[in-house]
Write a structure and sequence with these properties.
Elements lengths: L6 E5 H7 L9 E2 L12 E7 L15 E2 L2 H4 L18 H11 L11 H6 L12 H9 L1 H14 L7 H6 L2 H23 L4 H8 L6 H12 L3 H14 L8 H14 L8 H8 L1 H7 L8 H47 L1
Parallel strand pairs: 1-3
Antiparallel strand pairs: 1-4, 2-3
Helix pairs in contact: 5-8, 6-8, 10-11, 10-13, 11-12
């Protein structure tokens, strides 16, 4: 088989990309650069569906499958489906593999739940929205300009390579990034249609707020990020209507799941109810939580409240000190009077 004609099975994404209107069977592909003196051609002998190999929310990438004898890998990965308890099937799988090759080494055995819970994938994880792309691309010119000005400032001659090309090189890519951000902004503004009622109806009872619940466990209770998302992921997996549970029932269920993870905690019911509210989540994410006027004013108001409370406490403490000083003076005068 290793010396046979090179063959490959491709997925539907590859077919859609390169042969959308023709039969792929018998077509040839290569992974060689065409500048190579020898090119190895591989014939397509089958087509399979696309698998979510790199994550449920990852961008689709074409996939190809080689015969084991031709691939030459020194390891393989098996996915086994069972109707019984997954880990109870490990012994049977080991025996099956050993019957083919007694010397094969078997390691890294995990259940699918383990694999999913140790990734950043959450059942309710939202998709990135266009504003994130716009903001991310729009900051590139700032960094490039800083780079260019720092380079120019440190050069004694303006016509040097350092100032004329090297320090300015990042600018062109940054300008292209800015152009992309402007185009995205134009597309967003010209086509966006805000329908608050439909948006609210879509969010009510959905699991979209579960990420906010996980964030609350991290920020409000000091739970590790992975643990918090793992626990909330288990919650959604066990209760498809988790977002519709009464706050008290959800609090009890979450505390039980945390206890299973070795964490005995009493959750804040009021903050949990707030995290479950789509409206509260939207208000909390206003302007992305950045230095926009609304969040800044709210933060200043909170700081003024804290300052007022600290000022009152300081005034009270100073009054206590003055009262204690007066009492001490009277005690001293009384002692001196007795001696006289």
């Amino acid at each position: 088989m290793a010396s046979a004609h090179n063959v490959v099975i491709v997925d539907e994404e590859l077919v859609k990309t390169y042969w959308p209107n023709s039969d792929p069977i018998g077509k040839r592909i290569t992974f060689n650069d065409f500048s190579d003196s020898t090119i190895t051609w591989i014939s397509v002998v089958g087509v399979v569906g696309h698998t979510m190999h790199e994550g449920l929310d990852a961008e689709k990438r074409i996939q190809v499958y080689f015969p084991v004898a031709q691939a030459g890998n020194n390891f393989m990965v098996y996915a086994v489906r069972t109707t019984a308890e997954p880990m109870a099937a490990v012994g049977t799988v080991r025996e099956a593999l050993k019957s083919v090759d007694p010397d094969v080494a078997i390691a890294n055995i995990n259940t699918m739940d383990d694999l999913v819970s140790t990734s950043s994938i959450m059942p309710q994880k939202r998709n990135a929205y266009v504003l994130e792309n716009i903001r991310g691309r729009a900051v590139a010119p700032v960094g490039a300009l800083t780079h260019a000005l720092a380079g120019v400032k440190n050069t004694p001659f303006s016509n040097s390579v350092e100032a004329g090309s090297e320090s300015l090189a990042p600018l062109w890519g940054a300008l292209a990034s800015l152009e992309s951000a402007v185009r995205l902004t134009h597309l967003l503004v010209s086509h966006v249609e805000v329908r608050p009622e439909r948006m609210q109806a879509f969010l009510d009872g959905a699991a979209t707020t579960m990420t906010a619940v996980a964030d609350l466990l991290v920020a409000g209770h000091g739970i590790a990020f992975r643990t918090a998302h793992d626990v909330v992921g288990q919650l959604v997996a066990r209760h498809a209507d988790a977002a519709s549970l009464p706050p008290a029932a959800l609090k009890e269920t979450l505390e039980a799941l945390l206890a299973e993870a070795g964490l005995e905690l009493t959750l804040d019911g009021a903050r949990l109810s707030e995290a479950l509210s789509p409206r509260a989540c939207v208000d909390a994410a206003l302007h992305g939580g950045g230095p926009a006027p609304g969040p800044v004013r709210a933060q200043l108001e909170r700081l003024r409240g804290r300052l007022s409370a600290l000022t009152d406490a300081l005034d009270a403490r100073q009054r206590q000190y003055r009262s204690a000083d007066a009492e001490l003076d009277r005690a001293v005068e009384a002692v001196q009077g007795e001696k006289a």
